[in-house]
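Researcher: Structure for this, please.
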Amino acid sequence: MASASKSSLSSITHSHLDNRLDLDSILSIVSLVNLHIRRFLSDPAARKSLQLICNSSLTISDHGCFEFSEQSVLSNLYWGIENIELAIQSNCQEERNSWLAKSEQMLQVPASLEEDGSTAGIENRYIVCCSYFYLSLVQKLRGDGWQMTMHFLQSVLVFPQLVRRELAPVLWRRLFGSLMTIEDTEEAVDEAAKQQGRRYKDWLMYFQVVSYGETPPQIKGCSLVDTCSREAENQQYTNFASTKWFNYLEQAPTWASFQMMRMQGKESPEKILSTDADLSASNHGERNYQPGYSSPQCLELYAPDSPSYSMNLEVCEANANCLLSSRSHSSLNDLRFSILDRRDGETCPFSYCSVEDGTPSGSSPPQDLRCFSNFSSKFRRKYSISEAVPRGSFARRKINFSNNEKDRSDESSSYRKDNHMELLERFEKAFSTLCFSEGPGKYEDDDLEVTTIGEIFNTKKKVKYSSVKQGILDQLLDIISTSKTEKVIRESVSMLLLLISEDKAVIEDIKKKDLLLNYLANALKRNVQEAAILIYLLNPSPTEIKGLELLPALVEVACNSNGQKGYLSLTITPTSASIAMIEVLVTAFDYVTNNMHLGAISSPQILSKLVKVAMNKNLEEGVALAAILVRCMRLNGNCKKFLSQVTPVDSFLYLLRRNEKHAKYAALEYFHEILRMPRSSAIHLLHQIRQHRSFSIMHTLMACIQQAEPEYRLLAANLLVQLDMLEHSSGNSAFREEAIEILLESVASEENCSTQILAAFIFSNLGGTYSWTGEPYTAAWLVKRAGLASVHHRNMIRKVDWFDPCLQDSETNAWSAKTAKDVIKFGCSIFNALARGVQSKIKSVSHGCLICIAWLGSEMAVMGPSSLRYYACEILLSEIAHFLHPGSELDERILACLCVYNYTSGKGKQKLMNFSEGLQESLRRLSGYTWMAEELLKVTDYFLPTKPHVSCAHTQTLEVGHVGSGAATALIFYKGQLCAGYSDGSIKVWDIKGQRTMLVWEAKDHKRPVTCLTLFEPGDSLLSGSSDKTVRVWKMLQRKLECVEVIEMKDPIQKVESCGDKILVITQSHGLKVCHESRSIETTCKKKHVKCLTVVQGKVYLGCTDSSIQEVDIMANYKTEIRPPTKSWRMQNQAINSILVYKGWVYHAGVAVEGSSIKEWRKCCRPQISIAMERGTNVQAMSVVEDFIYLNCSSSPSIIQIWLRGMQQKVGRLAAGSKITSLLTANDIIFCGSENGLIKGWIPL
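Model: Predicted structure, token format:
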């Protein structure tokens, strides 16, 4: 039985080209479907019955829960069916149209499901099949019989068994009943029905394309049947026997012929209808309906399988053909005569319908003419066909058309051969061959057919264009939206592109079509790469492109270009279009969305393929690609590192040499971004650039400096001066002089803020270096040279990874010295420009100029005393001094100190005598950060021996609040940002710039309050301790705080510190817990209840509840008691609550504040300073800076007391507003966290 089924199937599965259908057969199928659906819609009981069947099948299985999206799909199907009923019952046409529109919109949702799989326990193919069946009803109610038939056939393709058994069994038998044999299984029959249904649908789509310029096929195929039905209802059929219309009724096949063909196993709708010619000669009797019955009523008189029923259907089917020409009795398997033949060959019964302006259709003169002179060449380019087609192939091409052309030459004049009907007919056949050819060995034939189309539209005669353009457009768009065949969609898209290449106005016509972008997006996702061009030409908004979710498909097209060529007048390829749209996706949205898109394309695999595209040296591709790569480099340092190794320098130099400004600007941006990397790698890339016709490049950059927009003049100057610096000539260079003059001019000018900012940035990093992420590290490199060594101090500076190898780059020092030497040759003009820039009110400009002054000063100090350095000291010192005061960023204070130290050495020391007391005070406060401040302070003390005045006034500069997180229980600076731990277990990261703060990150991994935060030098990490008995290790990854490790403890954590690779933990139990690198834990000082600790120079100092201080050397495993416990019966009140070390002194606080040098403590001497608290008052928290000691006491928990460190005198107080829960000093600012979650900060004036 299986073999019989296979043989049965093989007999009906022919290729489209070997078994053609003509328009008569297609219209007959449309008429047949139309009649059955009309009958179904006129029967309320049948509609209700089918609706109940569908609804019962859509019941969701009880699985305990379901996805909302799945319920939405079923809901759309249910209400889509309900809306059809409401439309049928509505008496108002406007209301009916509204219900139909809603129904179609809802049914499209389940119809778009994948056929495989299930939704809410229901097979997707069942849902999709029902959706398409009811969509066919919607189209019937709208009067669109053609689309109705398309939807019905699609339901057969999805689930033929459901159509056969439940949805339309009678119609199924009429269309596919001949496919059944006794031996066939149901599966074989359904598969055969799918094959036949696919054949019908393909030819329906085919005739949509080739019927342009005529009355729409659906009107001929559907409205005619409706007309016949209405006439039957008026009982006028008996009078029509003598008219032209019913001359064709006599040609309908009889039941006997139907049975004969069925017995032979060859019956199919198109073959039944093709017997018209044989039957017409012997069957010329009248055929009337029974009196008193309309057409639908007549159908109901007979059983579906009876001969009378079939014959009555055939009557209506024959009526569907009554407007067709007499050529309809030709063979349906031969497409020699199409609808175009019939219209040109003879006059149809209603010839007046095809007359235009009184001219018969057979000889309409050419008008609204347009010449497709480039059509052939574009097709050849698309299919990579050689320009010279071998002459021997011409005869082969003529085979397809020889019979047709011969007949026409016998009947027509020479004008007919060249008129647009003949050309469109040849186009029809060639397009059919392209769309339906399958299997291997067909590519040569495809090329021939494409060449044929090219010859058609390359004719010297002008063809009528405007009359057929809209028809071609509509049908091609319909195919794109409905076809599921990749090749058909690809050819349709190609045809549209060719139409656009001839007439750009077609784009506006296409834009009017709803949902077309969605269909084109689906085509692109199915690897129809030409769809990318069409989407690009439609110019969708960035939001629309994002909504189509095209990025993966666009990347696929861009990375697999395979040397595509564009259409001649469009000058765009799928690759170009894809790259242009990728550029939109990575540049047109907010920071987060752009980065999300960039993250999807920034892998080395994709970047390597994109870089290869740049080698094509296509202008528009190169410009868009440069913008994409620039964004990738800004996103991720790994992208820049990878691109620096594989970037095709020549491809971007090609853009730089182009005359188009946007190409030059794109190249300049690319080189500006990629050169923001470690100095040794940048030098290597600069050498690569110089190897490509360096003299030409230098002149190109010089031209850019003189002619480009201000911003790009600076980018060109930056690249030019760096390329020129590679030369080791000691003389002057015209290139270098011009470039530096442009930079100096922009730094000093305040007319254009953006160019001033950019110029200051370029100049400040000209001799320095960058990280791979593009962050300028020149300031960090200089600060490190100034002696900033403390881990805590370095973490007050933003955006610097102090463990980055580029800060140890060996080539940075040599490049800095050489560049500074060449810049200093410009003399006083350099410092005059920098003096104006450092006074700028724009923060980034003054900051950049300060870096540049510090860089040049450090290099001039190496060169020795000079008049230029003294001149610079005179004009710069007073401005630089402003950066020394508290309130400036720590790196600016250190750079200003570096400037003062270098410019005042030697002869300039006399300038220090003019320093005010305030400046001396600032240097004294900086002395704890850098040795240079300490040295300068010694000089000023020498010139000004009087004791300096200490200003005790403080001003609030900061207030950070976050409602709902509880008390701010811990504070610390990490990576230049303030991290705060809260009682709800969260850690928040605040970015502070002056008096402005912004929450940049929040993590809530702890389950209970965060009690402490500290820095962990190995891995450049942050530690947090919590009452939930865990210590967490955090790292800043991609500018986000990520927990990388959790260390479990047995007791709640009170305090955490680090000593080398060891983590020191104080818990509520006795002793100090030492967590080693292996995460093994040991306890030291087991007999002591430790309250607080501090670490300095490898030594740990512990404050205990018995008021003793223990000194522990973790590495040597040695401990000693440097302060014995106080002998008192009130031991619990003598606890040391805070201990810290400042400038070699150990300070502790409890019932009193005491301080001595470490040596004195070891001698067990009396403390060198002592501050007694009021009776019953304990110090809860303490912080020490150069001039002040800040205390928070139990008697006034919301107040910070200010004491002079040198005189042990209380000089002021700061009110926090609520109970203080944490205290921190950093960069001479005192911070406190309070119970209400606020963080406040004050600086001394």
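Researcher: Any notable elements?
Model: The chain has a mean pLDDT of 77. The chain has 51 helices and 32 strands.
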